[in-house]
Amino acid sequence: MAHALGAPAAPAILRNTELDADAVRQARVDLAACFRMAGRLGMHEGICNHFSFVVPGRDDLFLVNPYGWAFSEITASRLLVCDFRGNVIAGDGVPEATAFFIHARVHKNLARAKAAFHTHMPNATALAMLEGPPLLWAGQTALKFYGRTVVDEEYGGLALDEQEGDRIAASIGDADIVFMKNHGVMVVGPTVAEAWDDLYYLERAAEAQRLALSTGRTLKPVPPEMAQRTYEQMREGDRESARLHLESVKRILAREEPDFMH
What we know:
It comes from Neoroseomonas soli. By secondary structure, this protein is an alpha+beta fold.
């Protein structure tokens, strides 16, 4: 299912540059923690899914996982630095082809999308396979995403060229979460922590909705006015909650899988 990117060779980058800055090192650790916890929670799919983050201080470069490695194998140093032309600037290996063509175009076309997390996690993907709106605003967790989602109805097969990447980026618009019909989901955000928090709670909301629907009984949606009010309440402290959520993930991993930081 996955394809290695046939990337052109890039010139070697000198050490002691901005890519060695503390902020870049922290971004690597944060992103590696997200991969590891997503793997633990069953939010991965083989070697096919991908997370990326724009390199701090370099809007023309992004961190992404290398082709051929499962989420549970990712470490901070294993992440690649790529440019928007397909060059690997730092790291061993190449990105998976769809990872490059989706993430490079999302980061290039949407300046606000510093982080972009794409998965085929089972519950959210199941909702993306159904006719009609994916989330039905019947559970409190789902209200975190009220007014923040969009549906990309035009499944275009594998994203193996810039045109499909551009189409996906354009479909996101002002949303933070895109349900890619017949495909999966993508979460974009300003920080690694916020993208992780949204990804985690999106899957939890989708799981709760799936379980509720499996009873065969009718869902009881929250009225729009209350849904909007609850969303606003949630958003007031969302950034700090996301930061603390990721810190808790890193503490757990530091005890149980400390190699993620290497």
